[in-house]
Amino acid sequence: MNFFHFSKYDPNARGKSPFETLLNLFLQLLTYTNGDFNEAMQWMNELDKEYKLTDGKYGIGDFIEDLKDTGYIDDKNEKGEIRITPKTEQGIRKKSLEEIFGKLKKTKQGNHQTFKPGGGDEINPETRPFQFGDTMEQIDFTSSIRNAQINHGIDSFNMQEEDLEIRETDFKSQTSTVLMIDISHSMILYGEDRITPAKKVAMALSELIQTKYPKDTLDIVVFGNDAWPIEIKDLPYLQVGPYHTNTVAGLELAMDILRKRRNPNKQIFMITDGKPTCLKVGKRYYKNSWGVDRKILNRCMSLATQCKKNKIPITTFMIASDPYLQRFVQEFTETNNGKAFFASLDKLGAFIFKDFESGKRKTVY
Predict the structure, then answer these.
(1) Any long-range contacts for 104-112 (C-beta under 8 Å, 24+ apart)?
(2) How confident is the model at residue 182 (pLDDT cuts 50, 70, 90)?
(3) Residues 267, 312: contact at Cβ < 8 Å?
(4) For the chain, which residues make up each domain, given as ranges?
(5) Distance of alpha carbon 202 from alpha carbon 345, whole angstroms
(6) Which fold has domain 175-361?
(7) DSSP state for residue 12 in the 8-state scheme
(8) Do residues 218 and 232 lie in contact, with contact meaning Cβ atoms separated by under 8 Å?
């Protein structure tokens, strides 16, 4: 006798196994717990108790064993602690990419190539006649000599201006990006978690660049009282500290990083929720959390001007709506000739994705 088992239809499951369903939730929780496996599992047990994630046939214990078997967690260390693996870190980045950019990737927006000829080092197969102002390096001598022989004969070699052909090079579309993330204390104040969306965006952007634009570079800079670079693999563990906002230190470090990058196109993305409130003068921290301090602001504007001279546009994503903060961002943006977005947390990823992809259709020199 044949038996059939009927269960409640879940339109989001789409034939996923119990392990895959729980894995999606597990990766989400790791983002909120800053990569803490134990805390994530405590949350999963509480959610299972409340919403019956498991059906009695496949339990949380089975899920943990499958995580070990598939290489998502590892307990083979000196202390015997269970820790997530690089495979899990990449899984979190992929999950962020799917969550933030999934719908946008279905559009045609974001083609990487550019068909506009100009200064660069990627040879264009097409040639054109010589024009006044073209350089010697652009001359295609093989085609030019052939033209001279055809036009003037082989016996007495003679080359005229009309024989010359120019082989152009295309714009390089590779881009070096520094993503600055504010980790000051205000990113978790007022009952709003702002750091988690910022982390998700950073992980999604890093995964996008690594998979779709491998010739691009992405550096992550975090800034509080000071600024320091972090590796992409460290993003799931990023936390807010008891810091002020030293935007100057973040910009100085971002500029130092971009000076060492050989890509001709360079840009800075900055995610912040407030004004700069800190400046390091020698070994001392100059701080002012009340209003916009002119001493700190002047230094920010000076760096914005330097970036403009070096053709490094700064795009600021302000996740706060205070009018006086918006005025600061507008002044800063005008000084750099960059761009500013006053983004809500749920739209932050879409804003950054569209701006990053639109930059792929133009080259900054």
Answers:
(1) 104/350, 104/353, 104/354, 109/354, 109/357, 109/358, 110/357, 110/360, 111/360, 111/361, 112/173, 112/212, 112/213, 112/360
(2) very high
(3) yes
(4) 18-84, 121-170, 175-361
(5) 13
(6) Rossmann fold (3.40.50)
(7) T
(8) yes
Q: What is the pLDDT of residues 260-310, one digit of tens each?
A: 998 889 999 999 988 899 999 999 999 998 888 999 999 999 999 999 999
Question: Please, where are the H alpha helices in the chain?
Answer: 18-32, 37-51, 60-69, 86-101, 141-152, 195-212, 247-259, 294-309, 323-336, 348-358
Cα dihedral angle (34, 35, 41, 44), rounded to 10 degrees? 60
Confidence of residue 131 (pLDDT cuts 50, 70, 90): confident
Token digits for 63? 């899920």
Q: Give the tokens for residue 135.
A: 């350089």
Tell me the one-letter amino acid at 334: E
pLDDT tens by residue, 291-305: 889 999 999 999 999
Q: Nearest Cα to 236, choosing from 98, 103, 83?
A: 83
